[in-house]
């Protein structure tokens, strides 16, 4: 069902569109107190590590009690989930009378109607607890010390027009279009509860666009997230020009009192392409009196519950991000030469993805060496360190992202992160790297044809591009290129145009039905839902149904991503890998991957970006009355903090 919203007068709606919502002062304020000042970087470093804060068991009890009190006041028995920053589920509380299930939306925003025949992941009946966990993870993973995003923010940035509203058709899609299908339960990067408390953890449904998920902060440091599911409708908000009265969002807002983000980093303080993002439509002055006594509601208003694969039904404390037990920590100098680098760890001291040589020597004569992989990652990290962030406050902060490198088999050759990069970018950067390497690979069509779910998209692409050999390595595809082909309009946002060959037509499209992206993982998602319900075994750790490479690695083992931030890596015109970047603005992500690869090539003289004559921006699509060129990358106009250099990717 579509969310019901109370319309505002035209002037007020226009004001909201410009200034965002959920901020302000006094009773309407969402944000918490200003953070404790971040320590200055030391030892020649450019970044300071986030303070090691965490949620205690008492904190988790208070958060749940506050949510339950508001749910009682609003008459909506709900399921409430709390996670820490790296996605460990700390508790799931089900109120008496709460719905067991929810249904994923089949609402088509542009047509203002339900899809009568749901496709992809539309119209699925799924446990409500899975939705609550996904919302909590969304709030935690999209946020950092420089930005606080909610599941309402996610709704705004994943739809087919940005900003989404009845008056905005004709604009391009959201900047993080497709990010909802990340952190998947089948991903080989994200951890599982059986792996212990290391993170980042998987989400049962990827990231959520349904309001009711917020990040949690202590002393200005993001420490987790809370998610609420109560109405049975797992959907999105198709209109940012009104203010919703959403009970789930109010319940979640009550939950974060005492743990709210600082006001100055809320999403409604951050603009993307001139549009202010949204954090919340709920306001503090409309909350009921807070209930903070967990003992008063535990066992009477509801109870903690176990969820297969996520929690055994006990309430636990969170881990402090940056510690070994969190699964993400600062790298040693032996692991990465830049002192600001963070890596993923197994919780016992071992880097999960150390820099290494490629494994695909059987595919081509000169695979990437360990030294070359190290150089690409280091050069990309240097570009990040110089770049001006788009989504972080205060203004002129340094960008912080995750960077992943893979070979042509999809094997990980290294993962490195900025100290405070949002967690979601870890899995997404790997998705992007693999996506660029896969669609540039000579075996792409062959492998897609071997999977019944993806096979129809091969002929669709060949017909659309007018190229019977498409997807056989003739052209190099960056994620921006593949993203062009994954939109419900081509060119992106332009009404009356055909849908891209990897997308559903607009008559079927919503964020649960994106086309190829969903079809590659739909079987994994359904199997995992069955596992959560106790009906079958869990999904394997590798997604997509694509045949395994000679090493056993599936090239798309955590799904594909369809928004920008990656490029394939070449040596003498031969594909040797892919690099993916995620965590800041998409143009920044593009630049870091592209310039990082270029600079490593300049340093080593042995590798670099794809030759210009095979980049996807040489592909021109004939639409009958127009010819449209695919795009490859787009870099910020004046991106660096240490120079006024402009057009830094031009001509490379």
From TrEMBL:
Keywords: Signal. It comes from the Bacteria. Pfam families: HbpS-like (PF03928). Residues 1-19 form the signal peptide. InterPro entries: GlcG_carb_metab_protein, PduO/GlcC-like, PduO/GlcC-like_sf. It comes from Croceicoccus pelagius. This is Heme-binding protein.
